[in-house]
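Protocol step 6 of 9: fold each sequence in the batch and record its structure tokens directly after the sequence line. For illustration, a two-sequence batch is reproduced in full.

Sequence one:
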Amino acid sequence: MAPAVAVRLKQRFQKEIGPEYKEFLELLRQLRPEINLRIKDFDKRKSLWYQIVDSEALALLRAGHQEAAYDLVHDLVEAATKQ
């Protein structure tokens, strides 16, 4: 029974998690050193990461608007560094 559940979960995840997640995670990986350098306060960094994850960046990537997604994320980083 458990293998059937695992198969169905895998199928669901493959439908819901497309290639845009790979690109999104790569963008976040690239930004991590900059964010850690520019925002020393842990709570501010944590808040920024949640803002990025909760933003429309992933939807923009899914729609093929890579530049807009990158701009959005960079704008969020810039705004966080000014707080």
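Sequence two, same batch, same settings:
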Amino acid sequence: MKFLGQFAQGVSIDHPMLAQNLFQICGNQVMLSEKVIRARKLRRLDTTRDTKSVDLYCRIIWYAREGLKLLEEYVLPMVDNYVELKVLSYKLRASYYHLYVLFHNHPTISLKGSQGPMYW
């Protein structure tokens, strides 16, 4: 988040729209990090029964979806000239996808009944 804020501040003069979207993603990350930490603590309590964390999981997925939308629609098309910012953007995209895997893949998907091998 520190580097994201620094990059947003650095490009604010040349590209104000890019800087605005980077600051929005930084805010999204701040809100999301609190919820992810709380959800992980709730998950450690008891994984065998349904806890009150279902609403929290939905909020995490919503924040991840909004951040991913900002990142893919507004930031990634504009960062071609900035190598470090491009790398940071791809890492952010991977972290949003990782949140989907952690909190949205419930129940887990099983490929046992598939017709044949699935190639990715």
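Proceed to step 7 once all outputs are recorded. Observation for sequence two: The first helix runs from residue 2 to 10.
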